[in-house]
Each structure stands twice: as C-alpha cells, then as structure tokens.
Amino acid sequence: MPIIQSVLDTDLYKFTTSYAYSKLYPRAYGQFRFIDRGKTRYPQGFADALKKELQAMSELALTKDEANFLSRELPYLPPTYIDFVRGFRFDPEELQVTQDEEGYLSIVAEGLLYRVTLWETPILALVSELYYQIMGQKPDLAYTEETIIRKAKQLSEANITFSMFGMRRRFSAAIEDLVTKLLKEHSGDNFFGTSNVYFAYKHGLRVSGTHPHEWIQFHGAMFGYKMANYMAMEDWINVYDGDLGTVLTDTYTTDVFMRNFSKKHAMLFTSLRHDSGDPLCFTEKVIARYRELRVDPTIKYIIFSDSLDPERAIEIANYCKGRIGASFGIGTNLSNDVGNGVRPMNIVMKLWKCKMTEKERWHPCVKLSDVDGKHTGEPEEIELAQRTLGLPVNV
Question: Are residues 280 and 145 part of one domain?
C-alpha cells in the first residue's frame, strides 16, 4: 500500500500558498531542491523505491467528503480553488530523483509554482518513512504511547496552547495518526489542532498553519531583497483579507524583517512566527518593535515553532506571560519520538530559483536564517543578499 493515501496528507500552508500563487502569479515557475543537512547516505536502491511512491501519488484524487471538509473548514479558499484541488493530479514528470554511488540523494521539483509547491511536504514525509522502512527501524509503540500521553498532559497542565506541526519529519503516517489521536484525547482544549490537513479531517480537528519561507523567497527574487518582506505581507493581505494572520520573520533575518514591519502590518497580522534563533531574544525584539509602533503587545501573539519540546515550550510561555501571547507549533518531538534509538532526519526542501513566466530567465532564491550555517541558496547569491541588506557577509 502506498505511503501517501490522500491529497490532503500535507501541511495547510501548501494549499494556502498554492492558492496565493494561483491568484496573483499563476504563470510563475519555481524549482525546489531537497537538502539533507544530516548528510545521510541512503542505501542503494533508495531512489528507485522513492520513485515508486512518487508515481503512486499520481493516482490520488480528492474525494467528495474531503472537498466538503476543505470548503467547510477552510473558508478562505474559494470554491474555484477547491475545484482545482478536486481535479489536481500529482505529475511525477515534474521531478528528478537521483542517487549517486556514495548514496547521496538528489530531488528536484520544477514547474508552475501553484502546482509544484504541493510536492514539498509529501516528499519529505516519504523520504523519512522510506528510510526507516528500508533500514529496518521500527517504533516502540508502548514507549511512543506512554511518551505522547505524558507530553500531552504536561502541556495541558501548564496551560500551553499548541498545535501539531510534525508531518515533514515524521517517523511514519501511522505514527502521526496515532500521535494526533492521543493528543486529542489527553490534551483537552490546549490542543489547538494540526497542520496536517488529512489528520485534521480524520480526527475532527482544526487545521492550523502559517505561510512558508518560500513565499518571501519568491518575493525577494522577484522584487528585490529590501522589498521582499513588505511585498510578501502586502500580497498575503490582498489574497486573504485578514484571514491567516501569522507572518514568518526570519527569511532574511528577523532584524531585517523588523525594518519592514509597519504599523499597518502590526495591526493587520495577529501573530509573528519564530522559527530560528534564540526565542527569548526574539521575544524582546518583537515586544520592542510593537511598542515602537505604538501597538499593545499583549493583544498580539508569537507562534514558536523551532525545535520545541514541552519543557522548552513551558519555559518560553513563562517568559512571555503577561507581556505577549504565546502559542506553539511542536513538530518532530511529537511525530518522531518513537524509541529504539531512532533519530529524526534533518531534511528540508527549499525554493531554489523562480521566474515570473516560463519565457523569463531564472532568478536564484536564498534564505538567510537567524542561525549561522542554515542559509540556503547559491553562495554568491547569499553574499549578494547579505550585502544588499547590510548584513555581515558570512556564507
């Protein structure tokens, strides 16, 4: 049986970003590249096994009940887009998957951005699950259940509001399913929902999520690095009219973002998402910027989502208490804590280049993290972005 069983088995931000591209930039092209930060050497034959799973995805089609769920639970996606998803089929011809003699894996997805963006999270989930399968690694189900129940109760007792952000590096779809079920049963109202649209559908949960780095990377490539955050926020507002009011801050470092974060944006966006760097330092920067803009930080939120576990979430929540709202997207620590010595993979897919139409030349895309060593893109373009933004040049 194929690993991916539904078009909905993806993160919410894939649909919301796809729709934003289709509305504003329907002819734009993009290329995503797989990056394994752990430098994993995959067993020989892995690429062929992955290709079979990707080919099987071409048979997926949205069911009527799934379409009704999208229409009911995601009212900011219009009927025209729901109809597109009903007719959508994954096209493996958009992919190039290879493996070299040393076992290193290369995955490139290229095509119209509103389509090709939908490959990202399923590919990462497939790579993760297939790797464990082929390596013969199995979860300790008793450990997993006991651990998740403990974490759920720990978060609930501390009154932490959190969502499950665990698809991309999950141990398996079955484990994410189990974890989602246990969190719903043992966290009460503190469990806000999940970013995985399929498991929200299956378990009757809210769908939760924000927009991704790729949205800002696209705007940086098309409109220049100094205007990237501003244009990305403006376009998001134009598409969603106040819905989905969380903005990601660290595509070109948080300090650069704060320069572009105006009074208008501070009022229209309800929350900022922290995804790299020291969360307590980030909190201070956010509060200071809100006060500078004469916006009361206590009516705003930070969504923390960087390498969290319950203990870290509780520490951050206590730091924010009474100063600014805090909620949490906890991912791999929930979806891939299965015992038996299993280690989560450190894999991502990033937008590498894009262009506004098929006939135009490609523009390179980069991401400048708040953490050294996590920048992505061609080195010369990273240096150009750093110089353009007045940042220290450190590829």
Answer: yes
- Claim to verify: residue 170 and residue 319 sit in the same structural domain: yes
Residue 102 lies inside a defined structural domain of this protein: yes
- The DSSP bridge pattern shows strands 301-304 and 271-274 to be parallel
Neighbours of 76 (CB within 10 A): 13
| Shared domain check, 207 and 96 | no
The length of the chain, given as a count of residues = 395
User: pLDDT tens digits for 306-325?
Assistant: 999 999 999 999 999 999 99
Contact 126, 4 (CB under 8 A): yes
Instruction: Determine the 3-state secondary structure of 63 from DSSP.
Output: coil
- Contact assessment for residue 155 and residue 187, using Cβ atoms and an 8 Å cutoff: yes
Q: Which residue has the tokens 């951050």?
A: 316
Q: Residues 275, 287: one domain? A: yes
Q: Which residues pair with residue 111 across a beta bridge? A: 30
| Residues whose CB falls within 8 Å of the CB of residue 220, separated by 6 or more in sequence, listed in order | 228, 251, 252, 365, 366, 385
Q: In what order do the strands lie in the sheet with 325-330?
A: 191-194, 162-164, 325-330, 301-304, 271-274, 246-248
Three-state SS at 278: coil
What pLDDT score does 395 carry? 53
Report strand pairing: 191-194 vs 162-164: parallel
Residue 360: inside a domain: yes
What CATH number did the domain enclosing 49 receive?
A: 3.20.140.10
**Which domain range does residue 367 map to?**
12-137+342-387
- DSSP E strand boundaries for the chain: 29-36, 95-99, 105-112, 162-164, 191-194, 246-248, 271-274, 301-304, 325-330, 347-355, 363-364
- 0.90 exceeded by pTM: yes
Whether residue 92 is found in the same domain as residue 74: yes
d(C-alpha 72, C-alpha 175), whole Å: 27
Tally the domains of the chain: 2
* pLDDT tens readout for residues 152-166: 999 999 999 999 999
Burial of 149 per CB tally in 10 Å (0-12, 13-18, 19+): middle
